[in-house]
Amino acid sequence: MLKRHGCSRVENLNNDVVELILERLPVESLLKLKYVCKTWNSTIESQFFKERQWIRRRQSRGEDVLFVSIVDYPPPHLSYDEAGKSTIQFGSSVFRTVKFPFLSDAVCISNCDGLLCFTDDVEPNVVINPATGWHTNFPHSRFQPLRLDMLNKGLSNVPYPKLGFGKDKLRGGTYKAVWLYNSTDFGKDDVTTCEVFDFGSSTNAWRYVLPASPYRMLRYREPLYFDGSLYWLSECEETKVLSFNLHTETFEVISQTPFLQKSAPALSLLDNCLCISVEIEPNLLILSLSGNKTWDLMFSLDLYECAYLFESPTSTIIPLAILDKDKLLLRGDGAMNNVRVVVIHDLRTKSFEVLYKPTSCGSCVCYFQSLFTV
Question: With contact defined as beta carbons under 8 Å apart, do 229 and 244 qualify?
């Protein structure tokens, strides 16, 4: 109809009405509608519309979940993983498996505005919008050549990447990729060093942040982005939750966590809350951080009912998302590059079921589709 009668009828519509209609549509539809006429293209490409569309997406449906395969030889184009189901629908949420057309050592578990971050010690680092296919490279940090040198020398216990990606909280804030690593892993001072890459800077270079983190960060746990800051757990006698404010670029101790001793804690985001999960047999406890900095019990799961589904006795069970208010998505987090089984828990019936068993190494990320670029 639009092609048949040209753009005249479209352009006669009130702009406010058009925007209200467009912002309710999925990204894949908006990418096609950009070519209907210049007015729609200008609207869809505007930063204001991108922000409205993303907010509407968050309000109207659950998170989408990607299992991102980490491959040695990437496919020539973005494609779905043929080894398993490419799409699984759960109410308003969709679970997809996907391979991207570039190499990567690791996928950043945090995402920001629907953008994901991938790193590799040899190939360029990448930020990508999986909904639109837009992507851009950014340079290696000072940390990455040190790690690559250790790998080339055949050294054991090489530090695992701990990358956080997000943006500061100000409106129109700047996107940043932040490396955090314990300097003792490279024979230096016993501190956690922070490197920042500012996507809004003209220097196109990494820089150190001083002073360093007040505590060493917990190994094998990546920083988690939430509401303008990165969060992680400390490696000390009494585990603490630390934050790095992406606007002020300062560190802060958020909370003491005395209940985490002799456990395998992990941070996550559930229902727009910062959460921590800890295995205290026979239960997996999931607690959320309240406004007054106390931890409130959110869920308690029976480990004996679900642990066997993850197939690894050393696997830490980490919550991914709440789907349609009554489904809790869980992943197993074993050693580096382990295949991570994804399990779904029905909060009403208390049952557990394997949702996806990957056939290759990879990571799960939850996100809302957007039109954003950096």
Answer: yes
